[in-house]
Amino acid sequence: MTRTIIAPKTVQAGPVDLAARPVHPLWMRITHWLNALAVVIMVMSGWRIYDASPIFPFSIPAVITLGGWLGGALQWHFAAMWLLVFNGLLYLTLNIVSGRLVRKFFPITPRGVLHDLLEALKGKLSHGDPRQYNNVQKLAYLFVMLDLIVIVLSGLVLWKSVQFPVLRELLGGYEFARRIHFFAMAAIVAFLVVHLVMVALVPRTLLTMIRGRAPKTS
Question: Where is the Cytochrome b561 bacterial/Ni-hydrogenase domain (predicted)?
Answer without folding.
Answer: 23-212
